[in-house]
Amino acid sequence: MSLLNEILDYNEKFVEEKHYEEFITTNLPDKRIVILTCMDTRLLELLPKAMNFKNGDVKIVKSAGAVINHPFGGIMRSLFVAVYELNADEIYIIGHHDCGMAKVKPEGIIEKMKARGVEESTIEQMKFSGVNLDEWLQGFDNVTDSVRHSVDMVRHHPLMDKTVPVHGLVIDPKTGKLDVVIDGNKDENR
């Protein structure tokens, strides 16, 4: 049995037995917060629990390393939708210690792409299309600096409401301890 079939079998029972009822909520975040965090598997349940959030409290956007690498990419669009359409009044950028993006090197990813069948000519074509793969795939050296960078991109974006506090934090993926990098409520941070 494939993993997809296992998931679908479980899902059928989940729906039949109405386990979904405990998760019923609206599409608007009760606590009026949107969080950008990493897609790391250790944070799936830990981060909301460490912050005392339950289903329906917040919007959560995930990206590798909680990084915003383009001011007009999908991550920024999601943050704008959360603020302007879904009533989020605060933004939290939450990176984490021991992040895989701190170890990511573009040449390693490119080699793995080739090993999985991506042709060298396709990789070369990216360069001619104006995509700098080395820059686009680059990880970061320091999670605190990375969080600061993402906070700055949001805070200084010309389309962002300047009254929305943008906070930067780093979570320990083992204990859930949060360290504040930037308190968006302080005037010097706006």
Features of the shown structure:
5-stranded mixed sheet; 16% strand; Beta-carbonic Anhydrase, Chain A; alpha/beta; 190 residues; 36% helix
Description:
There is one protein chain. The chain has a domain at 30-104 and 139-189: Beta-carbonic Anhydrase, Chain A (3-Layer(aba) Sandwich), CATH 3.40.1050.10. The chain is 36% helix and 16% strand. The chain is built from seven helices and five strands. It has helices spanning 3-16, 43-50, 74-84, 106-115, 120-128, 133-136, 143-155, and strands spanning 33-38, 58-63, 90-96, 166-171, 178-182. Strands 2-1-3-4-5 form a five-stranded mixed sheet, with helices on both faces. 24% of the residues are buried.
Quick description:
The protein is 36% helix and 16% strand. The chain is α/β, with parallel strands linked by helices.
